[in-house]
Write a structure and sequence with these properties.
Layout lengths: L1 H33 L1 H8 L1 H4 L9 H14 L4 E5 L8 E5 L4 E4 L6 E4 L2 H15 L3 H31 L3 H4 L8 H15 L1 H13 L3 H8 L9 H7 L6 H6 L6 E6 L8 E6 L11 E6 L5 E6 L5 H6 L2 H6 L5 H10 L2 H21 L1
Antiparallel strand pairs: 1-2, 1-5, 2-3, 3-4, 5-6, 6-7, 7-8
């Protein structure tokens, strides 16, 4: 039994000193990104905010988006309609520029700012370390190791020490000896933030291994076929104009992705609520080929259970599913991997010095 304890301690130690570093970086960048909508909106009110936006109806927004996109046909890469912190329409052009327009008057408001670019870069670093091909696997694998091995081994050791006196395991002593102080910090922060960190790490792994997650979640599916699958097979024909301008009482168009080449498709993405709101994330997606044939169509209302569950990983990961309190908890939890890394290293250093003596 003592041999098993030693192995578990070694696993906790070496994972803490390796993937704990990556988890600390992910935690800090994620914590900063939690408040991206509010910070970006505050710094870019002229680009993102519209006076009396609530008085602008859906048809006006859709017609403005289509009109603006057709003004530079062939040069448009993506069109983004009002969503989250953005109340304006933005168009990403193939030359790399992104310009913002008023959703009613269609007046040019300006070009993407440095602060917006900063948060876009921050998200890339958070998800891929700035290395899209390799970095996403480093981040995703570290998140899962942190979840299934680092946190669980930490809980195992905490339980072995405090199972007969749980209150002591949850209590912080503020005036012990220096080496015990770091140990106390490590155990208290570790146990109090165990569940939030487990959830954040597990959902974080989804963005790298989403195919594996969806495959595993397919056990919750009742049937492989949906109403929308059958509808899509009929290959209905739409013009892009018709597809963009049609209003949906349930979903709001939030983005149009244009074909990258002659064989590419138009992709239209929809969202239940344009702006940040607690609750389930409900989406709809449609793909049209360049001849106007409906190729794929998916919707939360008719989607398979594994896709419905997978759609919630983002709002859970960032805390939005339970509102502002959830986001605040994720923000605080983002600092915990670094706190645990520092305090754990201090505990390890103290033991090393003791052994040398």
């Amino acid at each position: 039994m003592q041999h098993i304890h030693k192995i578990i301690w070694k696993i906790h130690l070496w994972l803490g000193l390796s993937c704990g570093v990556i988890a600390s970086f992910s935690g800090l960048t994620g914590a900063l990104y939690v408040w991206q909508p509010e910070i970006t909106s505050m710094l870019n009110s002229k680009l993102l905010k519209v006076e009396d936006f609530s008085k602008i109806n859906e048809k006006t927004i859709l017609s403005s988006a289509y009109f603006l996109a057709t003004q530079n046909k062939g040069e448009v890469n993506k069109v983004f309609l009002p969503y989250r912190e953005q109340q304006t329409i933005s168009i990403n052009y193939k030359n790399g520029k992104t310009l913002y327009y008023h959703p009613k008057t269609r007046v040019l408001l300006g070009e993407k700012s440095v602060s917006i670019q900063f948060f876009e870069t921050l998200l890339k670093l958070h998800r891929t370390l700035g290395m899209p091909t390799i970095g996403k696997y480093v981040i995703g694998t570290s998140a899962l190791l942190f979840c299934f091995f680092l946190l669980t081994t930490g809980f195992y050791m905490w339980w072995k020490i405090y199972k007969n006196n749980l209150s002591k395991g949850f209590t912080m002593k503020w005036k012990p000896k220096k080496k015990r102080f770091y140990f106390n910090l490590h155990k208290v922060f570790g146990i109090y933030f165990l569940l939030p960190l487990l959830v954040i790490a597990f959902t974080g792994g989804y963005f790298t291994y989403y195919k594996t997650y969806k495959s595993a979640l397919s056990i919750f599916n009742s049937s492989d076929k949906t109403v929308l699958d059958e509808e899509a097979k009929q290959e209905k024909i739409f013009s892009l104009e018709e597809a963009v301008l049609q209003t949906d009482g349930k979903y709001a168009l939030r983005a149009i992705y244009y074909p990258k080449d002659s064989l590419g498709v138009y992709r239209l993405r929809y969202i239940k609520d344009r702006f940040i709101k607690a609750g389930f994330r409900k989406t709809k997606e449609m793909e049209l080929n360049q001849q106007g044939k409906l190729r794929t169509l998916s919707s939360f209302d008719f989607d398979s259970n594994n896709n419905r569950i997978a759609a919630q990983f983002y709002p859970i990961h960032i805390g939005e599913i339970v509102g502002v309190l959830g986001r605040f908890l994720v923000f605080i939890s983002g600092f915990m991997p670094l706190v645990l890394l520092i305090t754990g290293f201090k505990v390890y250093s103290s033991k090393r010095k003791k052994l040398k003596r």
